[in-house]
Automatic annotation (TrEMBL):
Pfam families: TMP-TENI (PF02581). Mg(2+) binds at residues 76, 95. 2-[(2R,5Z)-2-carboxy-4-methylthiazol-5(2H)-ylidene]ethyl phosphate binds at residues 140-142, 170, 190-191. Its EC number is 2.5.1.3. It catalyses: 4-methyl-5-(2-phosphooxyethyl)-thiazole + 4-amino-2-methyl-5-(diphosphooxymethyl)pyrimidine + H(+) = thiamine phosphate + diphosphate; 2-(2-carboxy-4-methylthiazol-5-yl)ethyl phosphate + 4-amino-2-methyl-5-(diphosphooxymethyl)pyrimidine + 2 H(+) = thiamine phosphate + CO2 + diphosphate; 2-[(2R,5Z)-2-carboxy-4-methylthiazol-5(2H)-ylidene]ethyl phosphate + 4-amino-2-methyl-5-(diphosphooxymethyl)pyrimidine + 2 H(+) = thiamine phosphate + CO2 + diphosphate. Its cofactor is Mg(2+). Residues 13-193 form the Thiamine phosphate synthase/TenI domain. Pathway: Cofactor biosynthesis; thiamine diphosphate biosynthesis; thiamine phosphate from 4-amino-2-methyl-5-diphosphomethylpyrimidine and 4-methyl-5-(2-phosphoethyl)-thiazole: step 1/1. Binds 1 Mg(2+) ion per subunit. This is Thiamine-phosphate synthase. It comes from Eubacterium ventriosum. Signal peptide: none annotated. Belongs to the thiamine-phosphate synthase family. One of its GO terms (molecular function) is thiamine-phosphate diphosphorylase activity.
Length: 215
């Protein structure tokens, strides 16, 4: 069993970007606030940007994450990740298989895979995933196609694999405590950070509650 390219500490509080709440700010500014608040991992998720803008933004945010010593991965777009030398990628079940991604990226990059079932989780680990994102653990408005994953399934996935598992979907500072005892090493959030009026404070509060839940 190869060792993972990321650690459980790095996966404690994983921020997934979203442009929905930018207002008068740039994504760069919002990500920096989240990093100041204690985010430990950043995924750049862009569904609508053209390639050139995406690449430029990815390079800038990668440098920002480097400044805070936080891993930076790209959602879905393996080619962009290779082009700008991201720390890795996160892929869904409908994207490329982890094994194919690993061939393109090489052995040292981080690969995260979304999983909803024990079977998907075991297969992703077998194909070289470094961590799993499992959800939606609570109802969420951020992803229309997200299917709910019950606590029992989340726990079963954590027990079935030896790579780190993070929970995603509808998680807030108030409900994160309900995930205690599942076996996760951290959480991934979108709106709990980026929809907040005060991103830095929201991140700090969420981190404190997450630490309690994953102990």
């Amino acid at each position: 069993m190869k060792s993972s390219n990321t650690t459980t500490d790095e996966l404690l509080l994983y921020a997934v970007t979203d442009r929905a709440w930018l207002g008068n700010e740039t994504l760069y500014e919002q990500v920096e606030k989240s990093l100041k608040g204690g985010v430990t991992f950043v995924q750049l998720r862009e569904k609508k940007l053209d390639e050139e803008s995406f690449l430029k933004e990815a390079i800038e945010i990668k440098e920002l994450c480097k400044k805070y010593n936080v891993p930076f991965v790209i959602n879905d777009n393996v080619d962009i990740a290779i082009k700008m030398d991201a720390d890795g990628v996160h892929v869904g079940q409908s994207d490329m298989e982890a094994g194919d991604v690993r061939k393109k990226l090489g052995p040292d990059k981080i690969i995260g895979v979304s999983a909803q079932t024990v079977e998907q989780a075991i297969l992703a680990e077998k194909h070289g995933a470094d961590y799993l994102g499992v959800g939606a653990v609570f109802p969420t408005g951020s992803k229309d196609d997200a299917e709910d994953v019950p606590f029992e399934t989340l726990k079963a996935i954590c027990e079935a694999v030896s790579i780190p598992v993070i929970a995603i979907g509808g998680i807030t500072k108030d409900n994160v405590k309900e995930l205690a005892g599942s076996g996760i090493c951290g959480i991934a959030v979108i709106s709990a950070i980026f929809a907040s009026k005060d991103i830095e404070t929201a991140t700090k509060e969420l981190k404190v509650n997450t630490i309690k839940a994953v102990k």
